[in-house]
Design goal:
Elements lengths: L8 H35 L5 H34 L9 H11 L6 H13 L16 H14 L6 E3 L13 E3 L10 E6 L2 E3 L2 E4 L1 E5 L3 H5 L1
Parallel strand pairs: 2-6
Antiparallel strand pairs: 1-4, 3-6, 4-5
Helix pairs in contact: 1-2, 1-3, 1-5, 2-3, 2-4, 2-5, 4-5
C-alpha cells in the first residue's frame, strides 16, 4: 500500500531541468566509461571487437526496453493506490509522479537485469563461449536500467532511437566509429544508440559503416 503524503505538484516541474541535466550526464558517462569497462570484461573471453560492441549495444537496447516496461507497471501500481485519495480532483497524475520521484529506490533494478539477461540469452544475433555468462555485464546493465527508468519521469520522457543493421547512415543521429569506411552509405552495426526527446536527437549515437559489408556477408 502506498503511503500518502502531502503532495507538491510543482516539485517535479521545478526540478525537471536539473534532473534532465543529471540524467544526460549520467548517460554520457555510461557511454564514455561504463561501456568501455564492459568492453574490457568481454574482451577477456571474446577476441572480436565487433562481437563485443554488438553485445553491449544489444544489452543497452534491451535494458531501455525492460526498464520502460517496469516504469509503466510501477506507475500503474502507484496510481491505483493513490486514486482513492484523489477522487474528484485533477491532482492524481502530479501526485503519482511526485511519489515516484521520491521513491526511485523502490525500482527493482535487479529484476530488470535478470529480464535483460534472459532476453540476451535467446537473441540469435549474439552469443558467448559456453564457459562465460552475460551476468558479467550485470553492473553495466543495472546502470542503464536505472538511467532509463529515471528518464521516464521527465516530461517529455527520453528514449533511445531504433537502429537496424543496413539502414542508411544518418549523420544527424550517429557518429561514425573511427574504424568505419567514411564513404559507406549504410550502417554495418551500431555501437551506441542515439538518445531522443520525441523526434529530436539529444545525444548522437555511434555506428560502424563499411562499404560492401552486406554484399560480402551475402
Amino acid at each position: 500500500m502506498v503511503k500518502i503524503r502531502t503532495p507538491s505538484p510543482s516539485r517535479a516541474r521545478l526540478s525537471s531541468a536539473a534532473r534532465r541535466a543529471a540524467l544526460l550526464s549520467r548517460f554520457n558517462n555510461a557511454y564514455s566509461q561504463a561501456r568501455l569497462d564492459a568492453q574490457c570484461l568481454l574482451r577477456r573471453c571474446i577476441d572480436e571487437a565487433e562481437t563485443v560492441q554488438r553485445i553491449i549495444y544489444i544489452a543497452t537496447v534491451e535494458a531501455f526496453h525492460i526498464a520502460k516496461m517496469a516504469f509503466r507497471h510501477f506507475k500503474t501500481r502507484v496510481k491505483k493506490s493513490l486514486t482513492p485519495s484523489y477522487a474528484g480532483t485533477n491532482d492524481c497524475e502530479d501526485a503519482v509522479l511526485d511519489y515516484i520521484l521520491c521513491h526511485l529506490d523502490l525500482y527493482d533494478s535487479q529484476s530488470s537485469v535478470n529480464d535483460v539477461i534472459r532476453a540476451m540469452n535467446i537473441n540469435p544475433k549474439i552469443s558467448l563461449p559456453q564457459e562465460v555468462d552475460f551476468c558479467i555485464l550485470s553492473n553495466f546493465i543495472q546502470e542503464i536500467c536505472c538511467i532509463a527508468f529515471a528518464m521516464q519521469t521527465l516530461e517529455p520522457p527520453l528514449d533511445i532511437a531504433f537502429g537496424a543493421d543496413g539502414e542508411v547512415f544518418n549523420d544527424s543521429m550517429y557518429r561514425r566509429s573511427y574504424d568505419s569506411d567514411f564513404t559507406a552509405p549504410l550502417v554495418f552495426y551500431h555501437v551506441w544508440p542515439a538518445l531522443m526527446e520525441n523526434d529530436t536527437v539529444i545525444m548522437k549515437g555511434e555506428a560502424v559503416t563499411k562499404r560492401g559489408a552486406f554484399l560480402s556477408n551475402s
